[in-house]
Amino acid sequence: MKKVILATFLFVVTTISAQDKIDTSKKQIVETACGQCQFDMEGFGCELAVRIDGKAYFVDGTSIDSHGDAHAQDGFCAAIRKAEVVSAIKDKRFVVSEFKLLPEEKKK
Question: What is the β-pairing status of strands 93-101 and 55-60?
Answer without folding.
Answer: parallel
